[in-house]
Amino acid sequence: MRIAFFTDTFFPNIDGVTTAVINYANGLAESGHEVLIVAPRYPKSRKIAGVNHHLSSKVQVELLPSVEMSEVRLSLPMRKMFQKVTAFDPDIIHTHTPLTIGLQGLYLARRLKKLAVTTHHTHYTDPEALKHIHMFESPVAHQFQKGLKVVLKSYYDSHDLVIVPTQDTKGDLRSFKVAQKIVVIPSPIASELFWKAQSAKQALRRRMGVKQQALIFVGRMGGEKNVDLVMRVFVELLHQFPQLQLVLIGDGPDKKKLFKLAEKLDINRAIIWTGAIPHKTLVEKGYYFLGDVFITLSRFETQGLSTIEAMACGLPVVGARAHATKEIIHGNGILISSKDPKIIAQKIAKLLLDKEKMKMYSEQSLKIAQGFSITASTEKLLAIYDKLLYNNNE
Predict the structure, then answer these.
(1) C-beta separation of 107 from 194 below 8 A
(2) pLDDT at 379 over 80
C-alpha cells in the first residue's frame, strides 16, 4: 500500500502532530508499506534523516517552501510536489492539518481520484486555542473562531473518513455537526524505546543537577500549556518540600516571559531549564526520568503525547481535568479541577508523601502506555485503510 501524508507542521518543529506523523510513518514503513510525507520546509530543516528524530530512512519526504505567520507556516502549491505525488500514485492521501498543505492534499486526492483520510489533532475551536496565537482576550478572534467551525465542518466532510485520537475529540467534532464517519485511533508513541533508557536515569540526574524529587513538564512553552500555573503551584510546594525541583523541557514563544516569572517568584534556583531537546535524544537519553512526577495543567489537549511518553517511563501523572487528559489518567495519577495553585499543591504534596501510591501509579502508567504503542496504533490504522479500499473497490 502507498500512503501520502500531508502536514503543515513537521521537524524540526516538535509537537504532537509532528510526533504522530513520524511514528505512523515509521510504523507503516516497517510493516512493508510505502510512505511519502509532504511537509513545510523550515529554515533549519535541510537535513531531515533520523539524526534528530526517529524517522525511518524508508520514508520519503517532500518539503515545500514555507513562511511563518503567527506561529503557523503557510506553503504555496508547487508543481514539483504535484508531479512527485502523482508519480508516487498513493492508494490513500492522509491529511493531518487543515491548513495550506492539508488543503493541497485534499485537492490532490480529489484530482487524482484517491481516497482521502484526515486526522483531527487539535482543538482549533476551543477558546484555549487562542492562547496559542496570543489572542485569548480578543473579541475579534473569538468571533473568527466561531466561524472556523463552519470551515472545519466543510473540510472534514470533504474527506472519506475522519480519525481522532480520543472520544473527547470525537465529541468536539460532532458538536459542530461534522457528518462524516469518525473513528477513534490513539496517536502512537514509541513506547518500547522509552523504558530502555531507564538504565541511564541516575547518571543523567547527576549530570543535570537533579538531587531530590522533581516535577517535570515536557512540551511547548506557550500560553495554552499553562506553564505559568505550574510555576505558581511549584512555589506553594516549596514551602513544604524545600528541596523539590522542577524540570522544564521545551521551547516556545512564552519561554522568556516564563523565565522572568520564575525570577519574580524567586524559584529559578530550583528550576532546571533544558530548552528544546531533539526528540530522538529525549527518548534515547531518558530525559523523562529527570522527573518523579509528570505535571501538565494544559486544558487544551486532544491527546497529550508528552503525557503518554511520560507514562511509558513509568511516571505518575498530575493533569488538568480537561479534554483528553481526563481519558488517560485512570489509576496512574490525579486529575485537577481547580485552578487555584494552593489547592493543586495540596493534592500533589499528598501524592509525593505517599510512596505506595506513587509506586502503584507508576506501574499503572506503564501498563496504560502499552496501548499507545506504534504497533498497536498502526494496526488499527491499516485496518481502517484496508476497509476503505475494499469498500471503494466493490
Answers:
(1) no
(2) yes
